[in-house]
Amino acid sequence: MQVVRALFDGHDIKPIEPIRTKYKTEVLIIFPNQVEEILPAEARRLLRGSGRGEKLTERLLKSRADDIKHETR
């Protein structure tokens, strides 16, 4: 079973995460009882420090260098 977060605008369901299947599949849609809204300031506070030890800056710089190399070909 795979769980994917999505947004429902009253008419359509739009995934906000990648769906890892290429096949036509039956799905089960669950609406939570309470919709939790997080303000941007609260989201930043919750994310602060979540990437420690993952060398995110180095990975970003390497990825950008690879992009530049690919663009100049």
Question: Would you mind describing this structure in some detail?
Answer:
- The protein is α+β, with helices and mostly antiparallel strands and 73 residues long.
- The protein is built from two helices and two strands.
- It has helices at residues 40-47, 56-71; strands at residues 6-8, 13-15.
- Strands 1-2 form a two-stranded antiparallel sheet.
- β1 and β2 form a beta hairpin.
- The longest helix has 16 residues, at 56-71.
- The radius of gyration is 18 Å and the shape is extended.
What's the helix and strand layout?
Layout: E1 6-8, E2 13-15, H1 40-47, H2 56-71
Antiparallel strand pairs: 1-2
Biggest sheet layout: 2 strands, antiparallel
Radius of gyration: 18 Å
Annotation field: number of helices: 2
What's the shape? extended
Regions with little confidence, pLDDT below 50 for 5+ residues: none
The SSE order reads: EEHH
Can you count the beta strands? 2
Strand content: 5-15%
Q: Please give the order of strands in the largest beta sheet.
A: 1-2
Helix content: 25-40%
Instruction: Output mean pLDDT.
Output: 82
Question: Could you tell me how far the N terminus lies from the C terminus, measured between alpha carbons in angstroms?
Answer: 41 Å
- Which class do the helix and strand fractions yield? alpha+beta
